[in-house]
Amino acid sequence: MSPSTRQRPREHRPVRADTVPATPHDAPAPGAETGARTGAEAGEAAAGRLRARLRPLLRPRIRPADREVLWLYLLTRVGLWTIAYCTRWIFPDDKGTHHAARTLSPWERWDWWHYLHIAQQGYFPDGTGPWTSGWDNREAFFPGFPFLLRAVHTVVPSWAASGALISLVAGGVAVLALARIARLHLPHAHAGQRAVLFFLLSPCAVFLAAGYTEALFLALALPAWLAARRLDWRLAGVLTCLATTVRVSGLFLAAAVAVHFLVNARTAAHWRRLPWLALPALPPFLHSWYLHAHTGDWMAWKHAEERGWYRDFHAPWEAWANTWHAAFGHTQSTGYALMWQAEILAMLVGVVLCGLLVRRRRWAEAAYIALSLWALGTSYWYTSIPRATLLWWPLWTGLAAWSLRSPRVKTAYLAVVAPLMTVFAVTFLSGRWAG
Questions:
Q1: CA-CA distance, 418 to 35, in Å (whole number)?
Q2: DSSP code of 225?
């Protein structure tokens, strides 16, 4: 991983649109007295300021390096959809059928149904809830993705296509942000592209294309971290708040942004931005308040995780022992055992990553990884840690830095790790992910 700088980063202050010099068209006529503008002139000046504010949004800067990243992203999307096409022919749900499943059916797996049911019915349809038989514990899932899914569905008739479209667009935003984060750490022309390559060929990359929350979360979280690196605390707070509507991991990001604030804030102007860092706590509070109004339980989402996925608290060594026994104790079917082996490996990668970040004094990113590991490593057994690696941007920038110092790292990754992406994709798309 790249060594972190110990110098305090300079504050990048964006130029406010109202400080942009007026164009000759907007300037008052020669000889006009100050403050004597007519209503038409004032309106034209206001329109000019509005155009200046909107220009960065309407005409975003896409550099040649960004185009290369997007090209790589689209190629890997084609690859994943090719795997999905082949999987639905080779592994049909009915082994004796002569017809492949629907085009989008391989993507309709597990958590997707929770998001779909929330988007269609809400959290508690027709008075149902955790007190009813066969309850699916949907309150464990935060509302950001289901609400956006419902909004997109008003335009796109297919629910599955709506979910895939959200992930496609959000994934493009995420890889652009990841590439720019890599360039902040690595003064190399191909740093961003290298980090994105490792990210898109990671074992669990299939979840970036599925109707899951990973792509949408990263599309908000990575720009939030970029804003924090540039000391734009207002934008960082708003984007982190939006990320927290999607996943509880947004709170870990909020902690990382807060640590970065404490490390870098020195002036009174910085400290006046502190209230923006409390904004990400609002979505979890509102979600808990809504669930409490229907269930009488302020921690209903956490208790749903405990009921559905055994995420009640256990000491880290107990979670390790239980996961190890499930992976290698011959007590589970081979499919389940393989998944738990992947959980153990992902946990080890996370611990090493956290140690390296602490060693390089990258305190904020170390806090983010440490909180993620604590949340995922203190259940009855490990669950979803391989998927969580997608959210660990220091892992991908660190691998990029390592590969730029030692070219054999890229070769080894492509030869050994990238094929696991195909294995995991087929496992997910064929319905065998959970054993």
A1: 65
A2: H
**How distant, in Å, are the alpha carbons of 10, 302, 377, 379 from that of 312?**
43, 8, 11, 5
Could you state, in order of their start, the residue ranges of all structural domains in the chain? 63-92+101-298+407-429
Within 31-157, strands assigned E span: none
Closest Cα to residue 139, out of 171, 117, 164?
Answer: 117
Residue with tokens 């000491």: 315
Other C-beta atoms closer than 10 Å to the C-beta of 189 total 10
Cα–Cα distances (Å) from 269 to 83, 230, 255, 264, 273, in that order, read 52, 14, 21, 12, 7
SS in 3 state form for 367-378? HHHHHHHHHHCC
Q: Is 320 exposed, middle or buried (0-12, 13-18, 19+ CB in 10 A)?
A: middle
Q: Are 208 and 170 in contact (CB under 8 A)?
A: no
Q: pLDDT digits over 224-238, tens only?
A: 999 999 999 999 999
Q: How far apart are CA 370 and CA 353, in angstroms?
A: 9
Question: Most distant CA pair in the chain: distance in Å?
Answer: 90
Residue 361 zone, left/alpha/beta (φ > 0; ψ -120 to 50; rest): left
Helical residues (DSSP H) of 122-158, grouped into ranges: 144-153
* pLDDT tens-digit readout, 298-353: 999 999 999 998 899 999 999 999 999 999 999 999 989 999 999 999 999 999 99
Instruction: State which amino acid sits at residue 301.
Output: W
Joined tokens for residue 53? 């504010």
The amino acid present at 132, given as its one-letter code, is T
Identity at 126, one-letter amino acid code: D
Specify the residue for token string 């990754």. Answer: 413
Place of tokens 């909180």: 371
